[in-house]
Write a structure and sequence with these properties.
With about 160 residues, the chain is α/β, with parallel strands linked by helices. The protein has one domain: P-loop containing nucleotide triphosphate hydrolases (Rossmann fold, 3-Layer(aba) Sandwich), CATH 3.40.50.300. The protein contains six helices and six strands, in the order H-E-H-E-H-E-E-H-H-E-H-E.
């Protein structure tokens, strides 16, 4: 799958920010192709043996993220953590937040190098925080990459702490 010029710029800037500053929030408007861009960023960031997890809060987003990733970054093994399947076998796992946030599932989570949060404006919720805390506990050097169209929350809770 070929990226449009503005998507390529988003990916390049996101990868550079992750490399130089660590945790990064990518903001793009609805319809910009955030799923394609987060897939490309993930593909760029998972070098030799690196392990990543892409979080989403709904089944449809988890399935969409995985399908797009497989088109954007073919040949990389993927797996799913949701209500019906709980596999960390892929280099990139696609996880449902409500499922992964359960203590028993968090205990099975391997050391991650990259955590990608789709619809990152939700990341201040307790379920996301449990996942983020577990990722940081297992690997303090893990990068967190959030993507959203709406970085300003109605409740004024900031994403900076995440």
């Amino acid at each position: 799958m070929r990226l449009r010029p503005r998507q390529k710029t988003f990916v390049e800037r996101s990868v550079a920010a992750l490399a130089s500053r660590g945790n990064t929030l990518g903001v793009a408007p609805t319809g910009a192709g955030k799923t394609i861009m987060l897939s490309a960023v993930t593909g760029e960031m998972i070098g030799d043996g690196a392990k990543a997890c892409v979080l989403a809060h709904r089944d449809e987003l988890t399935a969409q993220n995985r399908a797009k990733f497989q088109r954007v970054v073919p040949g990389v093994a993927t797996s799913v953590i949701d209500a019906t399947e709980k596999s960390w076998n892929g280099q990139v796992a696609f996880a449902m937040v409500p499922t992964l946030a359960r203590a028993s599932n968090l205990a099975d989570m391997p050391r991650l190098d990259l955590l990608v949060i789709d619809e990152a404006h939700h990341a201040v919720a307790d379920s996301y925080r449990r996942i983020i805390d577990r990722v940081r506990e297992a690997n303090p050097d893990a990068c967190i990459f959030g993507v959203t169209a709406t970085p300003n929350r109605g409740d004024r809770k900031g994403l900076r702490e995440v």
